[in-house]
Amino acid sequence: MASVQPTGIEGLDDMLGGGIPGGAIVVILGSFGTGKTTMSIQYLLKGLSSGEKCIYISLEEDEKSIVKNALTYGWRLGDYTGNGMLSIIKLEPSDAKTTLERVKSEFPRFIREFGASRVVIDSISLLTMLYESESEKRTGLFNLCDLIRQSGAGALLTSEVNENHPSSSRDGMVEYTADGVILLQSTESKDASEQQLTLRVVKMRGVAHSRRIKPYSITREGIVVHSGSEIF
After folding, report:
1. Which of 73, 108, 194, 223 has its CB 3.0 to 4.6 Å from that of 189, i.e. a possible disulfide?
2. What b/e string do you get for 124-141 counting C-beta neighbours within 10 Å, with b at 16 or more?
3. What tens digit of pLDDT does each residue of 88-129 get?
4. In this structure, are residues 172 and 137 in contact, taking their beta carbons and an 8 Å threshold?
5. What is the pTM of this model?
6. Distance of CA 231 to the CA centre of its chain
7. How far is CA 184 from the centre of its chain?
């Protein structure tokens, strides 16, 4: 396991001093349209291009849709699923009992046996919504993170934000069990005349990272963080 996993996102690795610590679990917080899924796929592509095996777990899109959407950026995920370097798994939120049982009993072993270095769960918000009570949600989330850590893989978990507290996750839990938190927001200028996408590394255990809020763009080649620029 590498001591640092570069994210492959221009500017973000500069803010992190090279990348995410190997084996760390990092949550990407943001509302819809802020690029959480795009960032997650870039993280996987960086690993795949370096010969690392990766797993993408989705609760929203099936494999065909994910591969098709990635092609709009020129990313050929199908090449990696074809050669066995990438596994894309679709979970069904409508079948909560089966989905939670698979997460608990199958995934830790699968991550180990597949030999994955990087795992994405998109989104952890939808997964935790399947639990019936707050206590089950808390226990399930902490157990899942423990199992991922035991596998040795690094992981990105995407999470929707709380509408009333846009710096917190919807469940208010995942940021406490994760090793790192990256917050994506659409920030309004003081005179309310302009919106700008901004990124902040809220925490990253084991890394002396930048805490400054930086603008970023979602380009035709993916997310680019303008680490040398200031907002507005």
Report:
1. 194
2. bbbbbebbeeeeebbebb
3. 999 887 777 787 777 777 887 888 899 999 999 999 998 888
4. no
5. 0.92
6. 23
7. 11
